[in-house]
User: Fold these one by one.
Assistant:
Number 1:
Amino acid sequence: MRQVLLQMDQVTKRYGPDAEVGPLSLSLGEGEWVVLTGPDGAGKTTALRLAAGVLAPSSGRVQRVEEGIGYVAAAFSLYPDLTAEENVRFFARAFGMASGQARAESERLLEWVGLGPHSHRLAGQLSGGMKKKLALVCAVVHRPKVLLMDEPTTGVDPVSREAFLALLHEFAAGGAAVLLSTQYMHEAEHAGRVVLLDRGHVLCDAGLSELRARYPHHVAEISGGSRSALLERAHALPGMVSAHPLGGRVRVVLREPVAGLEQAAPSLEDLFVWLAGDESR
Amino acid sequence: MLARLAALVRKEFIQIRRDRRTLAIMIVIPVLWLIVFGYAFSFDVSNVKVGVIDRSGNSRGALIAQAIKGYEKFKPVTVDSSVQARDLMRHGKLSMLVEIPPGWGQQQAAGEPPSLSVLVDGSELFTAQAGGRLLSQALQPIQEKLVSEIRAESLAQILAILKNLPPGTADASQFAPPSMPSLLPKLEFLYNPNLKSAPVMIPGLLGMVLLVVTTMMTALGIVRERETGTLEQLIVTPIRPFELILGKLLPYVAIGLFDFVLVLLAGMLLFGLHFVGSLPVFSVLALLFLFCALGLGILISTIAQNQAQAMQLAAITFVVQILLSGFVFPLASMPAAILPISYALPFTYFVPIARGMFLKGLGLSDLWRQAAVLLGYAIVITTISTVRFRKRIG
């Protein structure tokens, strides 16, 4: 059986009389890749901070492997007045690595993410994408078993984002568990499991394929013609639930499949709209 | 644990080294204060602007007027009338007026002999206090001269009377002029013979430098970690709260001690101060005080939410300590309601230690009470602040 590396049981965090996140229950096993997503204010950051131990829970229990956590906060939170290399070496030493090992690992990892030529630049002067990569390096330098990342790809250009996710995959291939939050729902495609949060509650916690199988609607895409013409056509389809433009096409959610239309896999947005709608009903 | 601490201290030193301006401030502040408190902020009063109106109409009055005008610490101002003198005082051109009344210094037929009247500008506190004291000093040589004159006169009178008596009634050699007790005391000041400000201010300044550099920098340093989010990152590491605090403190201890030595040496070389006590004992006590100041800094960092608040809180603690500790104003002059505040401040205990050891050469046997309070203070405040400082962000 796979080892559980992080276990959250009915964990809550109260911010005020009517602001509460949770109760959240979540477990993370060896080699798992879990994406935490949901709209703004759903409680993603709080959930990750509780998992990392940065916030003390108001109630409930968090168990995690000792000294095996890597954490990347949403905002840049390294020392801007230290160089990239000094930051990595500081965190390596803070996690108890020997001096020589810290130096070697920081060099290797900075090369790995492509920051080798910038290792002597002050962290505060790096570009947004470089800062994210540096934060990743600082979080994984001690080879944690669990990597918690709060929106690591927000503000990173699409090319860098793909490269960044590839790096994460490479890291996770070593058997570490990854829990990351994102606003970009397509990033959930990388994940084995998706945790959807809404207003402080877990809406669902399941694999993407399982969720798609449970999805009661059908998604189709129509193309050819102006946007208004396509939308008009979509609204005329039988059993139409919703329609919205996507590039030159229009995506339609239907209660029943309609013959002759190009089928599409439900996106995480589609799943979220369905689940959130279920909840409010 | 030592490796983690070393990493923190190393990181802190790199940051201090990169922040050239703050580093410069930490070194410039003590030098600046040394100049302000040693030279400019002086309670030594000289050049008191004095006017004299002599209405005595005799040589004694003229002698007195001349003595006052010629006194080295007075700056004579020409004054014709007391109305004009009051006007000059209003405009700050005169600090003291001495009026010698008509007939002063002559034998009076009846009634009280007229006395010198002195008018002092009370709006200049230190000048007013010093003016009165200096007047006595200015008159001292004249008094001696007058006394010997009076004695000579008395003797002459007695001898004249004796001459008129039948011979053999009295022997002139048996008579001496009356001896007069001097009413002006001969003052001698121990430890600081010239009553200079610098020897009294600089020992306390040593403490003030430690207080400001360490309290402010520690408070700001910890709050900055919280503001930039690095605290969030540190929480995930195995670094324990007390390691984090110690890692923050040690570099500022080093800078505080550097400033301490700087002020100590400058005080000795620039102001010619002599340290008469035991330097090792003084250093240990200063270290105790340093820990009080650092603890205060951590305490502030646990209360303040941002650097601006930390700065404000730190500034309040400095001002209160500087004003109420006896460093500037003597504790004896403070109202009873203020004294409990004074005695709650660590600086109040450091000032007598610094002055006592610096000027009087006192040792632990004389200052053990103050030392014990500082020790207790250091323990209590670092304990409270370490307990309050949790490795959490909210």
Number 2:
Amino acid sequence: MLPRDTAFKLSMLLPLVLLSAYFLLLLGSQSAFFKAEGFIDQISRADILSAIALSLISATVSSAIAVCIAIPSAYALARIDFPGKRLIDTFIDLPMVLTPIALGTLILMTWNTAIGRLLSELGLTLPFTLAGVILAQFTVVVAISVRMLKSTFEQINPRQEQVARLLGCSAFDSFLLITLPLAKRGILAAIILTWARAVGEFGATVMVAGTAKGQTATLPSSIYLAMSMADLPQAVTLIVILIGISLLVLFGVRLVMERKS
Amino acid sequence: MIRVEQLIAQRGSFTLGPIDIDLGNSSYLTILGPSGSGKTLFLETCMGLLSPQQGQVWLDGQEVTRIAPEHRLISYLPQDLALFPHLSVRDNILFGAKRRQLDRTQVEKRLNELLELLELREVIDRKDVSTLSGGEKQRVALARALLPEPRLLFLDEPFSALDATIKRQLQVKLREINQQLGVTILHVTHDQEEAFMLGEQIAVMIRGQFRQVGDRDDIYYRPATLDVARFLRNQNIFDLIVENVLPDGTLQLGNRIGITAPGYAGAERGQRLAVGIRSEEVMVIRPNKPIGPELQDNLFQATVEDILVFGGTHTLCVKLRDSNITVDVELPNCAMRDLGYDIGDDLQVCLRKRSLWTIPMSCDPSTKENVHADL
């Protein structure tokens, strides 16, 4: 191999090695506070089990709603020309650039408007409720879902839908029989990433639903609570659980992506 | 079968039309034109994938302009074939029949016919369409389009990605399909050989309009406009003026070069004409050979300026001695070997009168755009 090629490869590999070392340092630094024998006791505690269950349920529901809304929205952005499309396309990205705390604040303020008060009267209250957690997570993750799915739909050849139309499919049939099956892996990847982001969501959830133990405390907000009470072993246990879940999910995404390619 | 009246469609800043055409049952029309001339847009508008701004599309006497694509019974084979990668070969072929809920026995019969005709028996049980070769994919897509017995088959440059041998085989197959199955075909292509080989009728589309619709000889030997002539690689085009109209209608033309050309209705002295001749129609007169009566006119002494060698032909670029006008002369390799011309050699050429075409500048829509300056 030419010396220049080696130098090029090294210059690309070095940042990767440094980044991996940094992440290993972050993980390794927890080991001093992690007690394997106390781990089982910790995760059997009712408040921790509740945080795990709440995180799993809220992330599943919010990401399911987000993907269900994102599929038609992303398809519309990818395929249909309509006035104001560019504006809406930019607008949809807003939750990705706004800090989750700001998003949470916006949700709370919306619940102080006439529409919000009406929804509250209809029973959709947000503070210290599961609905609040789900709405906060949905607001943060839906844009990621739209963005991923828009790119998936854009990669599908529109001619396939057109040919299906001419072979007897209505627009809706062509979407169901051709577009959705072809977008299957992209949709799966969007579900996994949306879910992973929802599980880790903290800022908006705390602003909207608070962190009541056993009620609205998710895994991330429980970590915050544990740290604020200087309970490092509990915080580390929760972090290990979150890391475990996240690694499983990211591994799943990688598998899906590799099969896609 | 299909009639299009005053069809106008728009995509971005490009306008298609107005277009009028009327095609009968079992006919084969090739739409020939350069890239970006609006050929695909025309097909899309006829298929109902794009709403026209104006005009009407009729199929079998029924107006279908506002009818959804799935109700038009048109099959479509696009350039990239658009096979469904998540379906097996069989499911791809049967897709239309299933959607249209056709009679199973009839479908099986038709499937067997098509498998035979398109030689697809060996691949019908393949699960993954990506394992097919280019030619097999083409035939599978064709079978998928033909299985629901469409009223019309629209082909959009279907062979552009294939090598020459497979392309020729499929072109022959397509002619068989048109003749055996009686399907009316609209075939878009920019390949002139393909258009002339397959099309009973040829429509030349340039800048969103059919500049000329006619049979092979009309299009090849009698281009209606200058941009059609240029697109069909007419290299020898002269800017001439009518100097005299003889009693038999023959025109005597002049302007740098004097030519005798066949007349046309409405020819007048002083009229400006574009006159052309295909390079393969220019005759090289062999020295010391008697000249027949039809070669007596338009004889010119010339000198070979350049020789371009193609696969089976040579093109001599010859300069006419008295006018300094350059004319391309195409000779098959065997003739070139016999004549043995080299650069600088003198020869005599004839721009045979019956091979000349004429286009009055005042009648040519393309001349208003850019032609005067180019001639």
